[in-house]
Amino acid sequence: MPHIKREWRIFASISYIEGHSMRRKELLKKINSIPRVRLAALPTPLQEVPRFSTALSSMARKGAGSRGQVSKGPRIFIKRDDLTGLAMGGNKTRMFEFLLAKAQKEGADTIVGGAGVQSNYCRQLVSACNLLGMEVHLILRRIRGARDDEIQGNLLLDLLAGARVRIIKGGEEEQREAILELAADLKRKGKKPFVVRMAGVEDLTSDVIGYVNCFCEITEQCEVMGINPSRLYLASYDSTQAGLELGRVILGSRIEIVGVAPGIWKSKPNDLVARYANQAAQALGFSFRLKSEDIRNTTEFVGRGYGIPTPLSVKMIKLLARTEGIFLDPVYTSKAMSALYTHIEKGEISDRETVLFLHTGGVPALFAYVDELEKEELMERLSFD
Q1: Containing H/E element for 22?
Q2: Which residues pair with 227 in a beta bridge?
Q3: Residue 76 lies in a domain
Q4: What is the spatial distance between Cα 322 and Cα 310, in angstroms, rounded to a whole number?
Q5: What is the pLDDT of residues 15-45, one digit of tens each?
Q6: Confidence of residue 202 (pLDDT cuts 50, 70, 90)
Q7: Could you give the CA distance from residue 180 to residue 246 in angstroms, rounded to a whole number?
Q8: With pLDDT > 70 as the criterion, what percentage of the chain qualifies?
């Protein structure tokens, strides 16, 4: 009897995988019916990081102290979307494949958008538009005051790539108004502008579909590698997690997605993720709807604010770099890794689990954050003849 039960389990597993693959093919067919320009080097690798896992678990044991909740820690795999190939990589490249195809379809010759001065979005946007022969204008807002005027990190790359950039005072509302005013002015001059973030955020379906596609990629890679992850961690406030959540529901995956917000704004991330996932579901022809309570996204690791590293996030940057040669960024991924570490330390994740971490990129911003990365400690490792 035991061998019969074992054979049944194997058969059930194979049947599930075959059904899963069939659903994935059907979903990919829907995705591929949407206008798209190829910009990213896909699929990106799914890489195990055993030295980091060991070091992270050792650090968590010390942090847990007498609670004794941590043993050897989980297996950790990183989905390397920092290696999407365009302009030093990042998650936005997947999104632009669909967004800029939409802009082309509408006849646009100029893209107008913006974010923070050290925006990964804008860095990838400029390079993507260069590939497509489109002009780019950026309205950027300061996050760290006058320090953001230094031509370094992502801002340096924006300028090298030929973007027209204006840095403004004020917050997001002032930025949106400035973007829309610039688009109107360009239109009067005979251009055909297409507005993206920060002003074009009513419908992020194009962005979301890029990460539905990514979830398909992840499930296929997990099957090939023979792993069954229980959780997927990432830094996200809206569309990246929305795409993963939508893919999870469509494919019937049991993986728990844990979004980690990089900042706190007016709208709750859970509400935004559900809203954008539902817009994309409708565009793909699905009638179901996600609710905000279906989404797990935490603002616990924001710290003092968006764009400001925390002491723990700096530790995560150094630990991963010094064990695996992979660099997290100071704004997004290091805060998401802080969440993964904390959940290991608290015993929420067992050593029997396999965990995925989506690396959404952002590494060029490191060069603009030397002081925040504990410059004194770095200088101790440096000597001069």
Answers
A1: helix 2-32
A2: none
A3: yes
A4: 19
A5: 344 556 559 999 999 999 999 999 999 999 9
A6: confident
A7: 31
A8: 92
Strand, helix or coil for residue 67: helix
Q: Which domain holds residue 68?
A: 46-89+204-375
Question: Taking Cα atoms as reference points, which of 341, 353, 314 lies closest to residue 330?
Answer: 314
| Residue 359 token pair | 């690396």
Supply the CATH number for residue 302's domain.
3.40.50.1100
Rounded CA separation 8/14 (Å): 10
Number of domains the chain contains: 2
- Number of Cβ within 10 Å of residue 11's Cβ equals 10
Nearest-5° Cα angle at 161, 206 to 366: 80
Which pLDDT value is given to residue 349? 95
| Residues sharing a CB contact under 8 Å with residue 23, sequence separation 6 or more, in sequence order | 250, 251, 252
User: Is residue 312 pLDDT above 90, yes or no?
Assistant: yes
Q: Over 90: is that where the pLDDT of 168 sits?
A: yes
Q: CA-CA distance, 337 to 89, in Å (whole number)?
A: 19
The enclosing H or E element of 208 equals helix 205-225
Provide the 3-class DSSP secondary structure of residue 113. strand
pLDDT at 10: 34
Assess contact for 127 and 100: CB atoms under 8 A.
no
Residue 22 placed within a domain = no
Residue 261 Cα distances to 18, 63, 238, 353, angstroms: 35, 23, 9, 23
Per-residue pLDDT at 22: 56
Residue 150 confidence (pLDDT) above 50? yes
Tokens 């003092």 correspond to what residue? 304
